[in-house]
Every structure is written in C-alpha cells, then in structure tokens.
Amino acid sequence: MPELMLAIALAACIVGVGWLALAMDVHGRQAWGRAAGAKAKRALRAMGAAALVVALVLCLRVDHATMAVLVWVMALAVGAVAVAMMLAWRARWLGLLAPWFGRGSRGPVPASIPDGPARRDPGKSRSRTR
Predict the structure, then answer these.
(1) pLDDT tens-digit profile of 14-24?
(2) Crossing angle for the helix pair 2-22 and 65-89, nearest 10 degrees?
(3) How far is residue 26's CA from residue 33's CA, in Å, rounded to a whole number?
C-alpha cells in the first residue's frame, strides 16, 4: 500500500507541475497554440497547487515528516524534469492534462504549429559558393 501511495504522489507531482506550467502564457501557447484566459490561469494554478499539496499529504501518510518531505521534494524534481522534457519534446502532449482549457470560444488549435522544435527539411541543402 505505501508503494501505491508514493506512486500516486509522484503522479500528482507531475500533473501539478504540468498544470502550473500550462498556467504560464508561453507554455500555454506551446501546448494549445494560444495562452489560457485569466480564469483558466487561476484555475490551473489552483489545481496545480492542490495537486502538489495532495502529493505532500500522501508522502506524509507513508513516512515520518523528515523523510516524507525529502521524498516529496524528490518527486517535485522528477515532476519538473518530466514536464520540462515534455515541453521540449512534445509540448502538445502537455495540453492533454487540461484539454477543457485548450478548447474555447477562440476556435480550434491551428494545425500549423509544430509539436516539437522546428527542423530543417533534409531535402533542401544550402549551396556553398567559394
């Protein structure tokens, strides 16, 4: 049972850090093609903070306070690295954490925004003149 609670705490850290990242304009644009509105940002921040508190409470239920805080901080670090890698690799996937905020009255997300970093077309080569 403690292993399950720690796994849920780790998942809560990843989701919480993801929601906090989506509340930022730049990451909202990466995930959805546009920044979230003011109400959505407040909701994402509140949900992210709540998820991190849930993770801390779960860690405290498993172990004594000093060890629980250490495990929670390590889970936060794992969550932050996981979200950073997702933003660098497939930012659109992060939008799946809150798809109801990505859709709105502003229409669908444009398909022209790439999922990852821009890449050159390998078929096009630069000609060198000497």
Answers:
(1) 999 999 999 99
(2) 50
(3) 9
